[in-house]
From TrEMBL:
PANTHER family: 2-DEOXYGLUCOSE-6-PHOSPHATE PHOSPHATASE 2, PSEUDOURIDINE-5'-PHOSPHATASE
Record-linked CDD domains: HAD_BPGM-like
Protein name: HAD superfamily hydrolase (TIGR01509 family)
Keyword ATP-binding: no
Species: Streptomyces murinus
Database matches in Pfam families: Hydrolase
Key words of the record: Hydrolase
InterPro entries hit by this protein: HAD-like_sf, HAD-SF_hydro_IA, HAD_sf, PGP-like_dom2
Length: 233
């Protein structure tokens, strides 16, 4: 056991470990254009940050009055996203550095995301992050997506960790709410700074209102050490 005790750390993927949102936006824009929605904007996309791709396409069908089956729209979006993700996905350097610190200290880590298994595999393998995490949980592995706690609880189960000993890193309000519902502490690093006052972030143990610009691996690691000490007291 590391000097961080029983601590386990669970990372969201999109917008937290990697800046995949530009790829998701482009994939969404192209897919929606194919089905008759030509004016999907980045501002539109921001409202779906933190929502699983499967839940997003269900919201699209309602918002845009689409008759296309949800599975077909999901497949069209995922296909385009995979092409973009394999070509290039940006990893946040400080997040990779934190994963490396935790790996060196023997702290169990997981990635829990609302993305599909195929999308997660493409990103994690293509960026080399797969070598730094032991557990991967996708939207397909649980009944409900965020803000339900299912994804994080399944990650904890696979890690063999008590939810009380888990800390989640999240960029979106639904994810922060899911962490709270799972009984876990949360470091919130908002992808969209203007959403920092969203009620979903209110329960975060640590809210970095400046997002990734404010996040550093060393400061997060120090905070995690303090959390571990508090839990073991």
């Amino acid at each position: 056991m590391s000097d961080l005790g029983a601590l386990a750390v669970i990372f969201d993927l999109d917008g937290t470990l990697v800046d995949s949102e530009p790829n998701y936006y482009e994939a969404s824009r192209l897919a929606l254009a194919e089905y008759g929605v030509p004016d999907y904007t980045w501002a539109d996309h921001e409202s779906y940050v933190g929502v699983s791709t499967r839940d997003t396409v269900l919201l699209w069908r309602e918002r845009y009055g689409l008759c296309v089956p949800a599975e077909e729209l999901l497949a069209a979006t995922d296909r385009r996203y995979l092409e973009l993700a394999r070509a290039h996905t940006l990893v946040y350097p400080e997040m990779r550095a934190l994963l490396e610190l935790l790996a060196a200290d023997g702290v169990p880590t997981a990635v829990a995301s609302g993305s599909s298994p195929e999308a997660m595999a493409a990103v994690l393998t293509g960026t080399g992050l797969d070598a730094l995490v032991s557990v991967v949980v996708s939207a397909a592995d649980v009944p409900r997506g965020k803000p339900a706690p299912d994804t994080f609880l399944e990650a904890a189960r696979r890690l063999g960790a008590d939810p009380y000993d888990c800390v989640v890193l999240e960029d979106a309000a639904p994810g922060a709410a899911a962490a709270h519902a799972a009984g876990m502490r949360c470091i919130a690093v908002p992808y969209v700074a203007e959403q920092a006052d969203d009620p979903g972030f209110a329960t975060a143990s640590l809210l970095l209102r400046g997002g990734q610009k404010e996040f550093t691996a060393r400061s997060a690691y120090a905070w995690l050490r303090g959390t571990a000490a508090t839990n073991s007291a």
